[in-house]
Design brief:
The protein has 476 residues and is an alpha+beta fold. The chain has an 8-stranded mixed beta sheet with strand order 5-4-3-6-2-1-7-8, covered by helices on one side. A 5-stranded mixed beta sheet has the order 9-10-13-11-12, with helices on both faces. Helix content is 27%, strand content 24%.
C-alpha cells in the first residue's frame, strides 16, 4: 500500500484549474468579474488566437499595490469574505480566491496594477512561480496578460472545440457580463478587430442594440414588479426575434449572471402562446434580492444559483410575463386576412392567406403556381370541412365542425408556409418571383453572422444577399 502524501501547491492548483478554467472563455469570465469587483467603469478584453496566444483584460478599477499583487496569486486569498457567516451576504462576483492561482497554474501571467496612492507595479509568473517583478508605468487600475494558455497541460487541447465554437463561447460570456452591468463600458477585441462595445450609460435599449443588433428593441416590453421579497426588472423582447436555444434568456441576480432552469422555464411558459415549439425568447431579467436568500456557492464557476422558494417565485413570474406581453398589441409580422368559411376547400394555398400588410410589405410574393405545383392538387379535396368562428388573443384562429373545436396558431401557420416554400425551392429558384423596390434588411448578431456565412452559398441560392458581416438582405 502506498503512503498518503500531501500534494504540493502547484499540483493542487493545476487540478483545481480543471474546474475553474475549462476554456479561454472561462479565463475571460474570471478576469472580468475581478475587474467589476474592483469598481471599474471601463473594461477592455483583448483576445488573440482564440485566447490561446494571449488574453488581455484592462480596467480602471481600484488597482492593487505590491503587497496585494503577491497575495492575489495565493490559493484561497480573497478580499471578499473572512468568516463562514460572510457566505450568507455575498455581494461581490468573486469570493472563493481560486481564479487567479488556477489560471496561473495553466498559463504564463503578467499583471500590472496601480492604486490611487501608489506607484504601478508588475509581476510575472510561470508555473505559479514569480519569475520577475518591479516598478512599472500605468494608469490607475489593473492590466492582466494571460499568455500561452494550457502550455504546460497539452492534453487540454484535445478538449478544445473548433475556432468558431471557442470564439462564440468568448463572445457569449462577454455578452452576459456586459448585460449584467449596464453602467460599465465594455469592449471586446479579437485579433485586433473590435467585435462589440457598450457605452456604459445604463441605457438598456442601447445596451441591447450593441449586443443583439439595432432592431432588437422594436416592440420590447418592460416588466417591473415585486414578487415576495424579490424586485423584478425585466425587458421582454418581441417574440419575432426568436432563438433556437434558451441561452438568450438572461437572468441576473444582484447583477450576477446565473443559470437557473426553473426561472428560465417560467419565462418560456409566459411566452408560450407567442412562440412556436422549440423556439425561445430573448429576455433580460434583473432580480434584486437579499443576498442571504441566494446560494451562489453551488459550483466553482459561480454560474448556478439557488433561490429560497424559487419554485413559488417562478410560479408567480409566469403570469406576470404573459400579462406584460399581452399589454398593448405586439406587431405581428405574418397575419392571416379575410378568413372564409370555405377556407379548406379550394386549394392548399388558400389554407393560409398570408397578408401583405404594412408590417410585412417586404415579404416575397411568390407566384401562385410556383408553390402550389409542389403538392398533390387533389389533396385539398381530402381535407375535412371547418367553419371559422373567430379569434382568440389575437393569435389563434377558432374553427368548428362535427368533430369539435379546433385552434390554429396563425404565427406557426405562416412560419410553416415559409419553411415549406424554402424547403421545396432550395437550389430551384427560377424567374417566378418579383424583386422588391426596397430589399428587406435583416440585421444579425456576430454569432448568427458566422452561422449564416457557413451556409452562404445555400442562402444565396434561395434569394438572400450579403452586404457586410452583419446585414443580410432579401430583395425578392
Amino acid at each position: 500500500m502506498k503512503n498518503i502524501a500531501i500534494m504540493d501547491m502547484a499540483l493542487a492548483n493545476t487540478i483545481a484549474a480543471g474546474e475553474v478554467v475549462e476554456r479561454p472563455a472561462s479565463v475571460i469570465k474570471e478576469l472580468v468579474e475581478n475587474a467589476i469587483d474592483a469598481n471599474a467603469k471601463n473594461i477592455t478584453v483583448e483576445v488573440y488566437q482564440m485566447g490561446l496566444e494571449s488574453i488581455i483584460v484592462t480596467d480602471d478599477g481600484f488597482g492593487m499595490d505590491k503587497s496585494n499583487l503577491h497575495k492575489a496569486f495565493l490559493r484561497h486569498a480573497t478580499s471578499k469574505i473572512f468568516k463562514v457567516s460572510d457566505l450568507n451576504d455575498i455581494r461581490s462576483l468573486g469570493f472563493r480566491g481560486e481564479a487567479l492561482p488556477s489560471i496561473a497554474s495553466v498559463a504564463k501571467i503578467e499583471m500590472i496594477s496601480r492604486t490611487e496612492n501608489s506607484d504601478a507595479y508588475f509581476i510575472k509568473l510561470e508555473d505559479s512561480k514569480i519569475v520577475d517583478e518591479g516598478i512599472a508605468v500605468s494608469n490607475q487600475g489593473t492590466k492582466i496578460i494571460v499568455k500561452e494558455l494550457f502550455y504546460n497541460t497539452p492534453a487540454r487541447f484535445k478538449y478544445m472545440k473548433s475556432e468558431y465554437a471557442e470564439k462564440n463561447a468568448i463572445t457569449e460570456i462577454f455578452d452576459k457580463l456586459a448585460l449584467s452591468h449596464p453602467h460599465i463600458s465594455f469592449k471586446l477585441i479579437m485579433d485586433d478587430k473590435v467585435i462589440k462595445a457598450t457605452l456604459g450609460q445604463g441605457n438598456i435599449a442601447q445596451l441591447l442594440q450593441a449586443i443583439y443588433g439595432k432592431n432588437i428593441t422594436d416592440g420590447m416590453k418592460r416588466l417591473e414588479t415585486n414578487i415576495g421579497k424579490i424586485q423584478v426588472d425585466g425587458y421582454l423582447i418581441d417574440p419575432k426575434f426568436v432563438r433556437s436555444r434558451r441561452q438568450d434568456i438572461n437572468i441576473f441576480i444582484n447583477h450576477r449572471y446565473i443559470k437557473n432552469y426553473v426561472i428560465s422555464q417560467s419565462i418560456i411558459e409566459g411566452y408560450q402562446t407567442f412562440l412556436m415549439t422549440n423556439k425561445y425568447p430573448i429576455v433580460l431579467l434583473y432580480l434584486t434580492i437579499d443576498p442571504s436568500l441566494v446560494d451562489v456557492n453551488v459550483h466553482p464557476q459561480k454560474m448556478e444559483a439557488k433561490l429560497a422558494n424559487e419554485r413559488l417565485f417562478a410560479f408567480q413570474l409566469t403570469p406576470k410575463v404573459r400579462e406584460t406581453l399581452e399589454s398593448g398589441h405586439m406587431p405581428i409580422r405574418q397575419t392571416i386576412q379575410e378568413v372564409r368559411k370555405d377556407l379548406f376547400k379550394p386549394t392548399i394555398m388558400d389554407i393560409f392567406d398570408i397578408a401583405k400588410t404594412e408590417d410585412i410589405d417586404a415579404t416575397p410574393q411568390m407566384m401562385e403556381d410556383s408553390f402550389v405545383e409542389q403538392y398533390d392538387e387533389s389533396a385539398a379535396d381530402k381535407l375535412p370541412f371547418f367553419e371559422y368562428i373567430g379569434t382568440l388573443s389575437g393569435t389563434y384562429l377558432l374553427y368548428q365542425n362535427d368533430e369539435g373545436l379546433f385552434l390554429m396558431d396563425q404565427h406557426a401557420a405562416a412560419e410553416r408556409i415559409r419553411y415549406e416554400y424554402y424547403e421545396h425551392h432550395v437550389g430551384k429558384l427560377t424567374k417566378d418571383y418579383y424583386e422588391l423596390l426596397v430589399p428587406q434588411p435583416l440585421y444579425i448578431t456576430n454569432q448568427d453572422s458566422q452561422r449564416l456565412m457557413n451556409n452562404k452559398r445555400l442562402l444565396m441560392e434561395i434569394g438572400f444577399e450579403f452586404d457586410g458581416p452583419n446585414l443580410l438582405k432579401h430583395p425578392t
